[in-house]
Amino acid sequence: MGKNGDLSDFDRGRIVGARRTGLSISETADFLGFSRTTISRVYREWSEKKKMSSMRQSCGRKCLVDVRGQMKMDRLIRDDRKATVAQITTRYNEGVQNTISERTARRTLKQMGYSNRRPHRGPVLTAKNRKLRLQFAQAHQKWTVADWKNVAWSNETRFQLQQSDGRIKIWHEQQESLDPSSVGSQVQTTGGVMVWAMFSWHKLGPLVPIEHSLNAADYLRLAADHVRPFMTTVYPSADGYFQQGNVLHHNAEVISSWFLEHKSEFGVLQLPPQSTDINPIEHLWDAVEREIRIMDVQPTNLQQLSDAITHVWSKISEECFRHAVESMTQRIEEVLKANGGPTRY
């Protein structure tokens, strides 16, 4: 840790708060990660001088969120780790005279050491998975955004009435794990809506509700009814690639034969197994999830949920889906840095 003078006002407030709740110097040091000397000095300065800020004074405008405000924001985060910045800002502004903007709330949370990330989810990557992911990243590390614009992305996913299947992001401090068990249990529901969709940098593609898990026959119908029309329209020069995953029905013989028949119209880009973090369509799923969560009237049954998903998907902005594709160079870089392991995406 840095010197005592380097502590933020928020850190000083946490130290004083912990000591006032009855924690000993050693317990506070272990809990907050500061040295015993720092804990003792900060609490003594507060006890004797009521000092709650560093001697250093900022040169900029006065901070809109003081120590008490940061402690309030800390409570809001701990009460709801899945809250959006908009929700945190609204809750913070309730009953206060000096309200803040979402931008100020986001900046304050960053200064307090909070990050907003998805919890770890899905099966652990095997050595083989890591190797295949690394090979894919190495093979495409020189691709530019212009190259990725020639790819149409696809995937299927499930949305649930009360809780998404791991897409919701969670606020956490740097030293905290992203494992969902460390931030509370997830709401379990029995019903959900499966959908399949595709898109590219050039155009938002179709979204198709799925009544059950896809098999080879279902996927073949999707390819014929949606993939081919999209690819031949968006890439009339036959310079496009259709991306698909690496699940069982994608590799069925009838599917491979179908794509082979249409190789003169478009190619196929196969992602390695367990690689949803490489697929930029996840960015769009996140966007749909967020929009549904902030709807004034929440879906209460599966039909309403399906209608909401379809509506929100159709309203995804060009800026949103283009940004998703443009993130591909960074996604590939992240896989390379992780040596094929999981990434922050």
TrEMBL record:
Ranges of residues in domain Transposase Tc1-like: 75-141
Give the domain of life. Answer: Eukaryota
A GO biological-process term: DNA integration
GO terms assigned for molecular function: DNA binding
Q: Sorted alphabetically, which InterPro entries does this protein's record hold?
A: Homeodomain-like_sf, RNaseH_sf, Transposase_5, Transposase_Tc1-like, WH-like_DNA-bd_sf
User: What Gene3D superfamilies does its record include?
Assistant: Ribonuclease H-like superfamily/Ribonuclease H (3.30.420.10), Winged helix-like DNA-binding domain superfamily/Winged helix DNA-binding domain (1.10.10.10)
Tell me the PANTHER family matching this sequence. Answer: SI:DKEY-77F5.3, TRANSPOSABLE ELEMENT-RELATED
Name this protein carries in UniProt: Transposase Tc1-like domain-containing protein
